[in-house]
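Notes from hallway chat w/ T.B., transcribed later so I don't forget. T.B. wanted the structure written out for a chain they're using in a teaching module, and asked if we could keep both sequence and structure tokens in one place. Agreed to drop them here.
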Amino acid sequence: MNSLGRQLLGLAVLIGVTIALAATSARQPPSSTPDLSLFFVGASADDAKAADALEQIAASWRNGYVPIFRDFMRLLTPPSDPPLRMAPFDPSRRQPVSGGTRGTIDDSKSQGPEAPATRVWRRLSRFIAEQTGLSLSESGSDLSVIQKWMWAQPYDPHPGYTFFKGTWYGRIDPRFQGFFPSGASTTIRIDEVDWGGVLVNGIPPLVYPQHVAASDDAAAYLDDDDIVFGFAIAEETRAFPKRILAWHEMALDTLGGVELTIVYCTLCGTVIPYESVVDGEHITFGTSGFLYRSNKLMFDHETNSLWNTFEGVPVVGSRVGSGVRLTFRSVVTTTWDEWRRKHPETTVLSLATGVDRDYGEGVAYREYFASDRLMFDVPVVDGRLNNKDEVLALRISDASGKRQPLAIATDYLDKHRLHHLEHAGQRFVVVTSRRGANRVYDAGDVRFARQVDEDRVVDETGEVWRVEEAALVSVSDSTRRRARQAAHRAFWFGWYAQFPETALIR
């Protein structure tokens, strides 16, 4: 059987037999809770054994069991849907799929007679409908219906659900098991953690990649209008072209003597640079292959803990509760021409990455970026903006430490290139270039009146300030500085899914 779904189905019975032994090392659920082995048997190809197992589960049913069945169905073959296959990952061809239920699929082969995996899909769909009252059609769209329903319920999972998640997805990549140990501490709903269709580091991170000077012939591959992500630390500047970073989604690098983990969640349109050293510990990150609300979860190699990319904190694993939080550095999204003009001494990524990719501008994720459709479901969307409209995102806390996130539509900032705002008891100014590069500064008691040019602004007293990466600096008195506030861009849907309490300026 070539279909991954069929392969996993064939393993299900075996796992159902062995899971009871494995579970002896796991936290045992109360006696009234069905053993995890029953769920595996219920998803097996043996109809008689499956019926008996599902009957036992139904006898002590609670809605918190639905995520287990949804995860089974995630890797099985829906009716009239091609089988899920572990084809080589290609972000340029991965298509938005309604309901976000699939990874990379191969639809080149016909199904022929209904596969056992499809029969099991139908069985589980009917069982969920019977227990929950959901109206399901036994089609591929069922997963979206099931997901939205279960996310609307109080989170009350099977006590062994985390262990199950690691065991089930560990059939794809054994390393997945390390992310979901039995009894793992977590700050997020595990049923909102979804597999993104790739293996651990299946999207290969750039590990201390080669750089070249902007003036070097090796940088001539960039056109003036190519999008780059610009970083500046301690007078050292570097550009990461979108056309390269989109293929890797993570880079480990050093800039200005600071170790960085640069994370690019292409699905959420977000590039975030974090300091890799926390309290003297150098943490080494990788790509887990899992998503949370369509945002990639990274992991640390030291503990296998999963980390929320938007917030830079561990959310599953042994580091949860440790108080560790990554320091967020500034990034600017601009064009190569604008960045190079502002920073002629900059370096830029070399094309010699050691990975065979088509690094042409706009190649990676072409279809995804061109559509407003989502590849994976999120619990809630907000229609004030289109899903993939870009916002400038700010993580701000008030005087009490309470989180007060803020999003500003970049279209709005293009029309208000010098924009003052007050939020969470603080005053900021956003300076936007003609090419759309946004930089946020702590305005304090200074009120800025106008832009002189791309590099200078004037306050209400007539004092001129230079627009620098680290701060606004008074031309007449360099000790007068208004510090840069770290911010980054994001697709509206991704930011809102993570921070539904966010304020929006549009």
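Follow-up for T.B.: Residues 381-505 form one domain. Might be a good example for the class.
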